[in-house]
Amino acid sequence: MIEILATRCTACNTCVSACPDHVFDVGSPGELPLIARPDQCQTCFLCELYCPQDAIYVAVGDPDAIPRSALDSDPVGRIRHDYGWDGGTDDPLRYFWKLGPLLRQGVEISSARYALLQAGKENGLREDGAPADVQAP
Amino acid sequence: MDEISADVLIVGGGMAAGWAAVAAAKTGASVVVADKGFMGTSGVTATAGPNHWWVPPDAGRREAAVRKRLETAFGLADPTWMARIIDITWRSIPELEPWYPFSGDGQGGVYRSGLRGPEYLRALRHYATSLGVRILDHHPVLELLARPDGSIGGAAGHDRLTDRPWRARAGAVILATGGCAFRSGLLGSYSNTGDGYLMGVEAGAELSGMEFCIAYSISPAWLSTRTLPYTGARFFDAAGRQLDTPGWDRPREYLCSLAAAFRSGPVYADLHEAPRELPGVIREIQPATVAAFERRGLDMFRDRFEVKLFGEGTIRGTGGLRIADACCATCVPGLFAAGDAATREHIAGATSGGGAQNAAWALSSGVLSGQAASAAAARRSHSDRQSRLLSMGGAGLHPTGAVRPVDRKAVVQTAQAEILDPDKALWRSEAKLSMSAKRLEDAWEDVCGSLRGEGLDAVAARETAAMAATARWCNAAALARKESRGMHIREDYPGQDTDWSRRLITGGLETVHTQREEAPVSELAL
Questions:
Q1: Does residue A65 sit in helix, strand or coil?
Q2: Domain assignment of residue B443, yes or no
Q3: Which of A123, A137, B16, B498 would bridge with B176, disulfide CB 3.0–4.6 Å?
Q4: What is the ipTM of this complex?
């Protein structure tokens, strides 16, 4: 579900060209872009990232998407801000190098857990199926 | 009709297309990129953050890296190609310095091996533009155009934003159209419908390694995201019982275990045991992943959430257009393939080229094809460049029978069901594959015989045709390879067979053919 915020949109049509999947059409002169093919939206948020006015909001998970007003904090503009494309961050990619190490740490965690579960199977199990030395959340 | 002319025409607008454009333009060629979407957001890299195979120019370290990867390629990769792509990758990424906001590596240096998708593709676009490359966004290609001698001399398509047909005449054409995930919902893959495979085969090209199309990524059930947060996840069934899921160090066991669990009901992930540092930095590394939860009112690290496996088809698989030389040429003169549109067996063999190898391949095959296409264009005579051009497109454009409505949704669902269903893909057998072959054949006949799209609708019709064709080739290759190797596991042929230490060529439109490559990979001369 895509929402174009009429109060912010300047009809620059950046979203029409930036969308990789041809969701939008240019509207009548001076009018908002049209959400012409919402079924082609893959919820990649890249229209939001490219929108210089933060005038688009892409809700997640049709058909039961949650309205923005029901969320704890206002999500409008959040994508562009988090990517650092709104100029609010000096060094938006400062932590990007951690991607690899964090992926590997996760792999080690799941691998070690499985090894423990296997060992636990041999040594008897707790009631919930986890070995005695794995803590419940 | 808009007529365009260029030395090199690149079809696609992702990572491989971008590097191909840059490499061709650097040789002095005039270059046009025609992308279905927007060069910068199109394709699976734009929503990702690819790490590249990254080994410094130290002979010992590079040899060791190649040797290590060969061990998991199951005899189908080629060490010469591997060494070349490591080298090209190492030399190319620093060229993006003026356009990409490189940052630190945590050790006082610059982090160059991994780049975040939106910034990477934006940088490639700027780099290509600075070299004079002409970019045609929203210009899907519908078919290749051949000269009377069979060589490729252009392409025809439809401009989606102005709803007008266009044609390009070119000295050579590069297919960088990505792989095919059969519209599984995999992030970034909506437009990756196998268009290049279909157009290539129509022009006379062959495919290789299509049986290696078994890959899945786990994500929240409602939206495919990058998988960084889930590598340490615990999984639970609907009753709250923890599943005994193998770790990510055993990809096949992990997948099989989850696939089995999904048979008995929904599966939930719990990220309480994620790496401790992850919650603090994930928003800066992958903002879109956080949005997938926040916009559902969920805290990804506290709330349990339902998950789903999203099929990745040939994107994380390794099959694609067969490469006939050392420079990414197909067997059709004037036609080249790069990135996921090409086979990645050269560097990944029978296991996934996912992650670092695939990114290095997209980059390097782009560079190699860009240079070679420019040279091929320069060799074309003036009269060649002016010659008559013939339409090569078939299914979806020119049906063999009377035009009648085709249930396109049903065609795509058939492709998804036969290729992506984990029960069929992870445990293949003659019986299952033969049943699938029949259903895919019926779907293909329907498409080929009756489907015709006109104007803008031709784009969707061709996408449907490409997915149906790709599924048929994947299945035929899986049926033909009577052994188990890498990601291709046959219940009826559980062992690896040395007679099959060869790549498998697939092709054909009216009837599908498969054929073992004549020489084992170790004897193939480059």
A1: coil
A2: yes
A3: B16
A4: 0.95
**Are B228 and A128 an interchain contact pair (Cβ–Cβ within 8 Å)?**
no
Domain that includes residue B278, residue range: 216-311
B110, B182: one domain: yes
Q: Which residues of B239-250 are buried (b: 16+ CB within 10 A; e: fewer)?
A: eeebbbbbbbbe
Residues B9 and B60 in one domain: yes
Contact A44/B46 with Cβ under 8 angstroms?
Answer: yes
Question: Secondary structure of B406-427 in the HEC alphabet?
Answer: CCHHHHHHHHHHHHHCHHHHCC
Q: Report CB contact under 8 Å: A42, B233.
A: no
Asked if residue B26 is part of any domain, the answer here is yes
CATH number at residue B261: 3.90.700
Beta-carbon separation of B285 and A95 below 8 A: yes
Q: Does B51 touch chain A (CB under 8 A)?
A: yes
Q: How far apart are CA A53 and CA A86, in angstroms?
A: 10
Structure tokens at B457: 């609708």
Question: Has residue B504 been placed in a domain?
Answer: no
Query: In chain A, what residues touch B104 (CB-CB under 8 Å)?
Result: 91, 94, 97
Q: The CATH number of the domain where B466 resides is what?
A: 1.20.58.100
Name the helix (H) or strand (E) containing B250. none
Residue B135 lies in a domain: yes
Q: Please name the residues between 174 and 193 in chain B that touch chain A, using a CB distance below 8 Å.
A: 185, 187-191
**Does residue B325 share a domain with residue B306?**
no
For B10, list phi and psi in degrees, rounded to 5.
-110, 125
Q: What's the structural domain count of chain B?
A: 3
Contacts of A51 in chain B (CB under 8 A): none
Which residues of A are less than 8 Å from B294 in CB distance?
71, 75, 78
Contact A105, B232 (CB under 8 A): yes
Query: Is the domain of B351 the same as that of B203?
Result: yes
Task: Give yes or no for a contact between B43 and B118, defined as CB atoms under 8 angstroms apart.
Answer: no
The answer for residues whose C-beta is within 8 angstroms of residue B292's C-beta and 6 or more apart is: A43, A60, B219, B220, B222, B223, B225
Query: Chain A 75-104, CB below 8 Å of chain B: which residues?
Result: 75, 78-79, 82-84, 91-100, 102-103
Same domain, B192 and B181: yes
A10 at the B interface (CB within 8 A)?
Answer: no
pLDDT in tens, chain B (526 residues): 678 999 999 999 999 999 999 999 999 999 999 999 999 999 999 999 999 999 999 999 999 999 999 988 999 999 999 999 999 999 999 999 999 999 999 999 999 999 999 999 999 999 999 999 999 999 999 999 999 999 999 999 999 999 999 999 999 999 999 999 999 999 999 999 999 999 999 999 999 999 999 999 999 999 999 999 999 999 999 999 999 999 998 999 999 999 999 999 999 999 999 999 999 999 999 999 999 999 999 999 999 999 999 999 999 999 999 999 999 999 999 999 999 999 999 999 999 866 699 999 999 999 999 999 999 999 999 888 899 999 999 999 999 999 999 999 999 999 999 999 999 999 999 999 999 999 999 999 999 999 999 999 999 999 999 999 999 999 999 999 999 999 999 999 999 999 999 999 999 999 999 999 987 776 554 4
